[in-house]
Write a structure and sequence with these properties.
This protein has helices spanning 67-78, 100-108, 159-162, 180-193, 203-207; strands at residues 3-12, 22-28, 62-64, 86-90, 112-117, 129-132, 144-152, 166-174, 197-199. With 210 residues, the chain is α/β, with parallel strands linked by helices. The chain has one domain (3-207): Aldolase class I (TIM Barrel), CATH 3.20.20.70. Strand 8 (166-174), helix 4 (180-193) and strand 9 (197-199) form a beta-alpha-beta unit.
């Protein structure tokens, strides 16, 4: 199959357990919870997304005809000969496009693969680090992994149910919106009240990174 990528870039992971790690980010175009177009936001399941994942016009974006072509592009962004290769597949919703061929091609080039998904589709079993960010109102089928990252606040989130899912880390992240300060306070309050959760912030935005 071919792959549609909005953007691809080398940066430092800005949030979650892997914060601070050098990584190639591959942002796939398309999502199953929102079209990405403002005219559809009010009727979408996920209404708070702050990411542009429409089209292929971003830095490093494009259409890749094969898994090998996409994996080669990831390798070029990382650089030759460098160790501890790490790639983050995100979106949009990456599991709409990630398949056996891509996972195999990235592993063949020495990459450890992380995914950031909404969990409405099963994560590929070959992915090395599974981060799920559930959205209230969606049916999450991927209820196990390495990291659960809940953007907060989200009305309708069943925290008791989510805490029963099989994740090694439970992270709460303040929603980036026009009431960001209130959202930070709400996330802190949740982490203080429920010790299973840890606070994570979007450090890349604070530092001016992509």
């Amino acid at each position: 199959m071919s792959y549609t990528v909005k953007e691809m870039f080398l940066t430092l992971q800005g949030e979650g357990v892997n914060a601070g790690a050098r990584a190639v980010f591959v942002r796939f175009a398309g999502c199953n919870l929102w079209s990405g177009r403002e005219r559809d936001r009010a009727t979408a399941i996920c209404r708070f997304c702050d990411t542009d994942f429409v089209g292929t016009d971003g830095l490093g974006g494009g259409k890749f005809a094969t898994a090998a072509a996409l994996a080669d592009a990831v390798e070029r962004h990382w650089g030759e000969g460098l160790e501890r290769r790490f790639v983050v597949l995100t979106g949009g919703e990456p599991m709409l496009q990630v398949d056996d061929a891509l996972v195999d091609a990235l592993h063949a080039r020495g990459f450890r693969i992380a995914i950031e998904s909404n969990g409405t589709l099963p994560a590929h079993p070959g992915i090395d680090w599974v981060c799920i960010s559930p959205k209230a109102g969606s049916e999450v089928v991927q209820r196990s992994g390495d990291e659960l990252k809940l953007v907060w606040p989200q009305a309708g989130s069943d925290l008791d149910a989510i805490e029963g899912w099989d994740f090694a880390h439970f992270l709460i992240q303040p929603m980036d919106s026009d009431v960001a300060e209130a959202n930070i306070e709400a996330a802190i309050a949740l982490a203080m009240a429920r010790p299973k959760w840890r606070l994570t912030l979007q450090a890349h935005k604070m530092l001016g990174l992509r």
